[in-house]
Amino acid sequence: xxxxxxxxxxxxxxxxxxxxxxxxxxxxxxxxxxxxxxxxxxxxxxxxxxxxxxxxxxxxxxxxxxxxxxxxxxxxxxxxxxxxxxxxxxxxxxxxxxxxxxxxxxxxxxxxxxxxxxxxxxxxxxxxxxxxxxxxxxxxxxxxxxxxxxxxxxxxxxxxxxxxxxxxxxxxxxxxxxxxxxxxxxxxxxxxxxxxxxxxxxxxxxxxxxxxxxxxxxxxxxxxxxxxxxxxxxxxxxxxxxxxxxxxxxxxxxxxxxxxxxxxxxxxxxxxxxxxxxxxxxxxxxxxxxxxxxxxxxxxxxxxxxxxxxxxxxxxxxxxxxxxxxxxxxxxxxxxxxxxxxxxxxxxxxxxxxxxxxxxxxxxxxxxxxxxxxxxxxxxxxxxxxxxxxxxxxxxxxxxxxxxxxxxxxxxxxxxxxxxxxxxxxxxxxxxxxxxxxxxxxxx
Amino acid sequence: xxxxxxxxxxxxxxxxxxxxxxxxxxxxxxxxxxxxxxxxxxxxxxxxxxxxxxxxxxxxxxxxxxxxxxxxxxxxxxxxxxxxxxxxxxxxxxxxxxxxxxxxxxxxxxxxxxxxxxxxxxxxxxxxxxxxxxxxxxxxxxxxxxxxxxxxxxxxxxxxxxxxxxxxxxxxxxxxxxxxxxxxxxxxxxxxxxxxxxxxxxxxxxxxxxxxxxxxxxxxxxxxxxxxxxxxxxxxxxxxxxxxxxxxxxxxxxxxxxxxxxxxxxxxxxxxxxxxxxxxxxxxxxxxxxxxxxxxxxxxxxxxxxxxxxxxxxxxxxxxxxxxxxxxxxxxxxxxxxxxxxxxxxxxxxxxxxxxxxxxxxxxxxxxxxxxxxxxxxxxxxxxxxxxxxxxxxxxxxxxxxxxxxxxxxxxxxxxxxxxxxxxxxxxxxxxxx
Lengths: 444, 434
Known about the structure:
The complex is a heterodimer of chains A (about 450) and B (about 425). Helix content of chain A is about 40%, strand content about 20%. Chain A has about 450 residues and is of the alpha+beta class. Chain A has a six-stranded mixed sheet with strand order 1-2-6-3-5-4, sandwiched between helices. Chain A is globular, with a radius of gyration of 23 Å. In chain A, about 55% of the residues are buried. The N terminus of chain A is likely disordered. Chain B has about 425 residues and is α+β, with helices and mostly antiparallel strands. Chain B has two domains: about 210 residues, CATH 3.30.830.10; about 180 residues, CATH 3.30.830.10. In chain B, the strands form three sheets. In chain B, strands 1, 2, 3, 4, 5, 8, 9 and 10 form an eight-stranded mixed sheet that branches. A five-stranded mixed sheet of chain B has the order 11-15-12-14-13, sandwiched between helices. A two-stranded antiparallel ribbon of chain B has the order 6-7. The N terminus of chain B is likely disordered. The chains are: A alpha+beta (about 450), B alpha+beta (about 425).
């Protein structure tokens, strides 16, 4: 849920850098975790501040408050007027933005390296001193309602995803949309925002990531000067989330909409996530998703559904285990004209069943391992992506060691581990099948 | 021997490091720009072929687009599966795409297997198979996209706007073609599109990363040596036929999508930089831009609004877009028109000019962040006809614009009465004016 239109961050699970990936990390006395990733190729720097608070930490009835507060964080402090922070960053030739997920909220600036001190001053200022005028809150509420209209309500596929998530998670708040349910968003107010802010926006609940043309000692000095004097939130408890009960029943749903042009079937399974010191099963699921749907040409699903038979226009498999609680392993098939969703779903199930019987094709497995190794090299060209990887990991309770171990763990995954992960994850009792249908005014 | 220009161009930014752009000419005479960086063992290569989807012949709309989508679907001895497996086995990344004025190719490859990756890319560019089975499969994907576009408000608005602005010129219709035109394309049409679009007389190349000038020179000849010398004739000038007003296209949605615009300004116009600053103040994507402030921050009518100058090869536009709930579309349009008129007569303030100059000059070096980005910027500069020292002089050209220039160019460029709004949705109290 980025704040600005058109901005997307790519969270690539596979992009990690092994031996070349060294960082410096330390903690300030007030509890702020700091990670410095040096890259001296270009004189630029990215500052990111990550808060360990996301939409899944919201209380019942207040869906959307984490994202709403993200917007309001640009409305000024005791020292900086509404909108002025972005104006200052822009006047320095920089870019800034923010994004909210279920597990964290993050803010960043990308500027020339010699402007880092000013960026820290501004980010530290709004960590504790936000000032919200009632009128600004009211107007911004209209903005997030327009955002929901644009990104969700105007897109039948996004609406289906929202319904699928709501059905998949029976107890976790991953079933509630990050942007919020409209009827609850409409009731959000200044008090809700400030309550969220004062609790979660504190140095002892944040991670500072600085990446680029900087030296760790300089970052430490600046961080101590700007973030050091801030007041921590006392008594902040570890994040306690509900957990999913054993899921016993397959769920199916359909969504019909006259704006649908391309019907499709999706299947989302509850899956294991990455945990600190325990990432092997998640790594096997990453490889499984790559094997099944990672390539539009050579993956198992593409070959079976688009090449060997002409069942699908597109097919895909996806998994991202970088979350605090249960993750999702997804499959999707867009049938060719003349193939019904039932036929598409049957074909998809047929592919999975055959894969479980036949096992991993060694050549495909070797290619994926090669690509994973190369992704390390390409990732080093994208310093913002590296900053993101560390910030995200720390925000969900992984450690720097977990991040650095991850490429090795991916490389060590065996075909047997992939098959065992597949056997475990493909359990329809913990899955939701969604059909997106054209509503043509005729009973389907 | 490879001929190399002796003088390098040094890009010196205030407080920023130097990026060395080398002009390279291959033994076979193909030119490229290069930034060497041995830090990471890979190379990013960017290629543009001028022409793009505007080269489609009469009745063949969508041919260049479909051809581009098929380049990777088998080449030489390899079918689709074989080609993809070979590429992935090398961990090379290729991307082929078509635009209004160009066909673009992006490639990334590791130093350790560069020769093999280039052999593979060469076979795709020079010797694609266009197997009938691949043509039919990818045609199905293109048609599926076209069907989705028919239900996408943003695409509907863009197509209506272009149709009214450019009529029968290729710019007046989607380069993806129509379901009918794409259905009718034959394998011979694809082969003809390939010959017409990928030719020596229209290549622009940039590379960044772990490769020397000599190595790049050899690579250029290997990649392009066997392409035809000349391609299909480029399109002629597109006449602007759009008048001011409002067009409403009914679409069942609670939130309308609005595209608006007028005729723009040529990239090589002496007033281009002044126009660029004006656009940034009026509708830049930044929060301090006037439209963002007035339409989003003050009134909450939209999640985002922005405008851009779009100088194309054969026409120029200044266009913007936003989405707003049906009830507020009329008010939002009024705000946009008022802001347009206000700037046309009043120009911008000294403060706005100063802040925008600092932003534009300060953010420019951030574009040179990484090999992939650098190669992209450099190839774009070449296709726009900019000199190799442009990156050094560009900020000075922005600084040289005066407040008087901005006032004069605002009056020349911005025509509130010529603004056309295309609304796709069910706006309350807004109807078509013609």
